[in-house]
Amino acid sequence: MKYLLDFFEKISTKLQKFNGNTNHELFDTMTDDLSLDINNGGRFVEEKQPVNFEDEVERVVHKTQRYLLSVQNHVDGHWYGELEADASLTAEYLMLMHFVGRLDPEKEKKALNFILNKQLPDGGWNIYYGGPSEISVSVKAYFVMKLAGYGDDHPKMIKARECILKLGGLMECNCFTKIYLAIFGHFDWRGVPTVPVEMIVFPRFFYFNLNEISYWSRSIVIPLSIITAKKPSHSLGDNISLDELYVVPRDKVSYRMKRDDGKLTWRNLFIGVADLFKRYEKAPIKFIRNIAIEHSERWVNDHLKKTDGLGAIWPAMVNTVVAMKCLGYEKSNPEAYDKAINEIEKLAVINKTELNIQPCVSPVWDTAWSSLALIESGVQGSHPALIKTGEWLLKKEVRDPGDWQHKNPHVEPSGWYFQYANEFFPDVDDSAVVLMSLQNISMPADSGKEEVILRALRWILGMQNDDGGWASFDRNNNRTVFDHIPFADWAALLDPSTSDITGRCLDIMGRLGFEKDHAVAAKAINYLKSEQEEDGSWFGRWGVNYIYGTWSVLTGLSYIGEDMSSDYVRKSLKWLKSVQNSDGGWGESCKSYEDPNLKAIGPSTPSQTAWALLGLLAANEWQCETVRNGIKYLVENQNSDGTWTDKEYTGTGFPTVFYLKYHMYPKYFPLLALGKYRKLSKGE
């Protein structure tokens, strides 16, 4: 009885504060607070059972809304979820800590627990959930286990070694792995592809210069070139050896790169150039090399300003620390050296038993999508939580020049980056989604929101490529011939136009009043038509894979006002419907990047189901059986806390090489899809 009296007293207090005001924000806050109070009271309150499908959707939506609002950072209004990668980053972390002499035994133990828990039955490690063993991550995991004292006769080491040899042995590892092993004396520097530090002084009129490769490649390669010029050596003593991982005895290995059979190919040309650099490295022109190292060092230090580590991405940050050690920063600039190491430590996710390393963090991306999902599912833009989000996003706008200006010098700086701080590298994708969110948040009149939206929109429009599409960080970064450079085996040296980002740009243009006959939009639509697959789908560069790309394009076409009954759009919708799984959901494995015949094949996941639904809903297909079954899948698979669970990796770093698991994806994307369905079913 006392509990009920307290409950009604609180209602009375809230109503007095309400005082006839029709402000939806106060009403939303009141009802949200009361539901949380009931839950926290530890008493079961019987809810009215849903009487139809739409009521069930309503219940699921409210549950996820409450969850998202509860996990928001209540101090500044942002969201942030873990960004999980494979075991290779955690192994590299342990290798780096050995190299810099800062290995923490407790952290090593937890990192090894994470690595060992990822070992597959065949003894190897994969780069995405459900994938096969991959050679480079398996070698790195094996090496750090050896560093930790695991003997050759340990059962896990035996299985790992057998798997590595079946995959071709250590010589089949990628460039980065070979460089890291060379630092420890377990790979010959002769076998490492040349990364000439002299590239930094190549003038802009050279066909190849560092402004012609992607932001992440510049951030990775420039400190890496210092490392390969200095060729550091870190001895582990005679007790550690990896000779058993060579299929051919190590002293008989040939380090010549494999050439194509044809007499004249780009690969053969670049291998020839690499051979010339190898000869040059034996006796470099000292004053040119010293100038190049100084230029590279200056570039790194300049780009460390207003950022959470170089490029705010793992490989660049690791290479920076190693390069700094090569340059003697421990003594000459210990403050910068310690800061670079501390930024790496911030990427660790630590619990009671495990430690794993994130490739970067994604707060701006997670915040923009979380707030957009809440808004699209019915939370008022005037809600205090969202106003706080708007304030946080406005503060994150980029206002300083960045690398993008090398090819776009006349556009005023704006946009948003992916991480907490990465001022040199705003990206188009984040910027578009942030604008979608800000547009719908009711900010105070003096917030400057309109000016920011206009400035950021001009920046996005100015980043359109000549082919009509948009890339992530740069304009016209598309000289595909560079993909044949031997050290660029991460398969993503460049940053060309992509269908998914182009769709996102059309989306925000449409929301802000542009129509399809605008010159920028028309050019983008033509680009998308040229990129459409034969079956009607679109490739997804930044999410797995054709489901992601197709959703992004369809949503963009819808908002820009394209005729959604046109043949090419209907073909796309037909494809989406045809690849629905029998359980009502959609799924696609990372394997589709290696074999397009496997597109849209995989177990259903909440995030990919949401993307497929959003694509269909963009064409107003909310009443069809396909959509209803997809919504039913989400309703039936919601967790008790209002979330969903993705086991699969549905995010993409570098196709075929590196994949991501966004822990927030199965939280905000299903809510976004359910919210869209809910609006359409209500005739909104």
Radius of gyration, CA atoms, in whole angstroms: 26 Å
Low-confidence stretches: 1-48
Residue-averaged pLDDT, rounded?
A: 90
Query: Can you list the strand order of the major beta sheet?
Result: 1-5-4
**What is the helix content?**
40-55%
- The rough form would be described as globular
Compute the number of strand runs. Answer: 5
- Highest CATH level, the class of the largest domain: Mainly Alpha
Give the biggest sheet: 3 strands, antiparallel
**Count of alpha and pi helical runs:** 25
Which architecture of the largest domain per CATH?
Alpha/alpha barrel
User: What structural category characterises the helix and strand content?
Assistant: mainly alpha
- For the record, the count of structural domains works out to 3
Beta fraction: under 5%
Measured between the Cα atoms of the first and last residue, the distance is 42 Å
Named CATH topology of the largest domain: Glycosyltransferase
Question: Would you give an account of this structure?
Answer:
- With about 675 residues, the protein is mostly helical.
- It folds into three domains: about 1-70, no CATH class; about 85-355, Glycosyltransferase (Alpha/alpha barrel); about 365-475 and about 485-680, Glycosyltransferase (Alpha/alpha barrel), CATH 1.50.10.20.
- Helices cover about 50% and strands about 0% of the residues.
- It is built from 25 helices and five strands.
- The strands form two sheets. It has a three-stranded antiparallel β-sheet with strand order 1-5-4, with no helix packed on it.
- β2 (about 350) and β3 (about 355) form a beta hairpin.
- The longest helix is centred in the first third of the chain and has 19 residues, at about 55-70.
- The protein is globular and about 75 Å long.
- The two termini are about 40 Å apart.
- Mean pLDDT is about 90; it is low at about 1-50.
